[in-house]
Amino acid sequence: MAGVKIAEAKIYRYTLPFGEPVKFADKICHERNGLLLRLISTSGKSSLGEIAPLPGFSRESLEQAQNELLMAVLALNGTYIPDTLEGIKNNTDSFNELSPSVQFGIDSALLGLISTERDKSLLEILGVRTTGRVKINALITESFVSNEDELERLQKYTSVKIKVGRHSIQEDAKLINTIRQQLSPETTVRFDANRAWSYDDACSFAKLIDTNGVEYIEEPCESIEESLQFAKDSNVPLALDETLYTEQFNSVIDSNKVVAVIIKPTLYGRILKIFDLVNLLKEHNTHAVISSSFESSVGLYYLATIASAVDADYPCGLDTLVMFKGPELSSCITIDNNYATIDKLPPSDETINMQLLREVI
Ligand code: OSB
Ligand code: MG
Q1: Which pLDDT score, from 0 to 100, does residue 351 have?
Q2: What is the reported pTM?
Q3: In the chain, where are the structural domains located?
Q4: 171: left (phi over 0), alpha (psi -120 to 50) or beta
Q5: What is the CATH number of domain 4-121+351-359?
């Protein structure tokens, strides 16, 4: 059978400290914990995929993901990865039942091994002619402190995403207006309320800000019905994030009221399924914004690859490496103001910092 034969599959654990504590859905985290799956082919080539359930967002815990991965490794050892994407899709159905973070990590490692084995970029293997350089939006979280260095950094972006809904609407609006005064008038802004508001709150917010140059607000209201009503009644376009994981998603997309959908592969799962979703969104003229769940540079490499294949010019949500301090797991992605740029080849033994990893099996 044609394909790449897996000689060995191994699992590692990492802990990466954040520069400042990060709040995930009310959980304060000082560090990020995750797993790497490392595949080695019979010809000695290697690849890595990242499995990092996000506390407060993923349904699966890290322990559960690790147990699922241990089972998957048994199935992967000694098998062939088919040569084509269709082949992978058709021959790896057994992974469809795994938790999303595990699906994403396994798909990353499988695609990565084909890429390193053939010495071809993953974009080439996916059949897309993009460069591996994608625009990103800056991310301003609730812990933002407005100082000169930060404002100077923000000025280099064409799009800035600001988290709202954790403080009063007046405070949010005041901070937004202060930040926007420092930015070029061409810089567009995105907001994310994570469903914090009622319909009336959202309307009050819209009155307090300049809605010109606002690309969208993610999930303004507690219920999707209120968010849709707000999209109709205000001139703030609507984007979805949390709704993607609910049963209402398809009918909401059919309403044609949604300008963008945030896709977090660690929460969504199989990489090839993401391309199906993006095609569905295109039919509705809805943008796909590939976004991070605070993965390390290993996961981010694949996220940037997917984002580049989807739409390299519409800024994606990959500006999260700045939240970490200390050495990086891999050197294969560079984030420099406004852009993420990936190396030709995905993370492998050649570019991984093994000292940061603890072997599980
Ligand atoms: O609410 O969009 C969110 C990251 C992890 C969990 C939730 C969210 C995020 C991000 C990613 O904001 C970064 C971005 O979208 O720019
Ligand atoms: Mg969001």
Answers
A1: 96
A2: 0.96
A3: 4-121+351-359, 133-342
A4: alpha
A5: 3.30.390.10
